[in-house]
Recover the amino acids of this structure.
């Protein structure tokens, strides 16, 4: 069974939370703390992963950016986006590779939002959670000794046009959007409540 401490941080700059994640990751590796879930929102910034840097993919000029070491390409952060960072030691049954861990995080989001009457699921084009042809949840992790940093985002009510202008890893603009743009109007609190109540999903064996 996974014991999880939850830290709800409110609105924090990305750099500040990144430093906290690194500190917690070191402590988790040494078993000084339990698995820890950080929940926050960021001031607007686009984080640039290794894939985007290697492929020369850039954010529009008017977006502030920061390089990160998680998997993936560009990820927009800002108002109306829930950011969740699991600083977990992935050592339970069904967590033997990164793909299975990503699937477990996807299932956690999918089941939580289905209980809020959001029709969503996976798409072969890219990891994350999708609603029809649109992606509203991105996932990207970085590991050290099988302990993760970074995590996932859920765009629940982002400013019109902002997240849509950021081209993901080969997806092109307008593929990523928010739940509100798709006609689903949820509060951050309702999503967080469902995610917390479904944390047991992250302790299950992954279904192949």
């Amino acid at each position: 069974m996974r014991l999880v401490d939850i830290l709800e941080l409110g609105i924090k700059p990305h750099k500040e939370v990144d430093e906290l994640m690194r500190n917690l990751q070191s402590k988790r590796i040494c078993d000084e703390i339990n698995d820890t879930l950080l929940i926050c929102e960021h001031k607007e910034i686009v984080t640039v992963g290794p894939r985007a840097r290697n492929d020369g993919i850039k954010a529009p000029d008017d977006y502030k950016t920061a390089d990160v070491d998680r998997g993936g390409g560009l990820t927009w952060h800002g108002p109306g986006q829930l950011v969740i960072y699991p600083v977990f030691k992935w050592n339970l049954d069904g967590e033997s590779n990164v793909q299975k861990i990503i699937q477990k995080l996807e299932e956690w989001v999918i089941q939580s939002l289905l209980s809020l009457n959001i029709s969503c699921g996976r798409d072969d084009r890219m990891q994350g959670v999708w609603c029809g042809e649109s992606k509203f949840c991105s996932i990207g992790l970085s590991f050290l000794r099988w302990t993760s940093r970074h995590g996932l985002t859920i765009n629940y009510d982002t400013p019109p046009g902002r997240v849509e202008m950021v081209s993901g890893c080969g997806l092109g603009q307008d593929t990523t959007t928010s739940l509100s743009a798709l006609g689903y109007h949820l509060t951050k609190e309702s999503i967080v409540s469902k995610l917390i109540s479904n944390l047991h999903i992250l302790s299950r064996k992954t279904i192949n």
